[in-house]
Each structure stands twice: as structure tokens, then as C-alpha cells.
Amino acid sequence: MPFKTIACFLALTLGAATHAETIKLKLGEQGKQEQVELPLRGMSMEEVETQFGKPETKTKPRGEPPISAWHYANFAVYFESRHVLHSVIKHQPAKQK
Fold it and tell me: Are residues 18 and 34 in contact, defined by beta-carbon separation less than 8 angstroms?
């Protein structure tokens, strides 16, 4: 009985491992990103607004500690209370030639 269980487990595990997705990128596109200056961790909301201007949109704080986000054209800034937790560049689809 244990042999059947082990065989079934191996068949399911090995079968799932063979279904990987392949992503193809043109040579040179792997690290291609526009250089965008981002707010640094620990900056206050006031410092971010002074340096980067008013955001396009803001999300209301949620949770404890309160987490909110400001969205700019090329990036988003996530705040914990009133200080930058993390900044991320928004994905920009490649322009068609």
C-alpha cells in the first residue's frame, strides 16, 4: 500500500514539474528600464510631495499600521503611516515600431 502512495505522489510531482512556462525576450531587453528617480525609504509625505509634486491619485490608509499609496505616471509610492515604505516603477509596455 505505501508503494502505491509513493508512486502516485512521484507521478503527480514530476508531472507538475514538467509544465514550466517559457518567456522569451529579445537580446538586450532583459534589463532595459527607463531610469526613474524614486522616493527613498523613510522620506516623509511632505518630502515626497516637495520633490516629486502632487500624485495623480492617492489611496486611503488601510490596516494597522496604516498603509497607503500615491500613484504617479511612472511609479507608485507606498507609505506606512506618513513615511515611504517602498517605491516601485510601473510597468511600461514596449512601444510597437
Answer: no
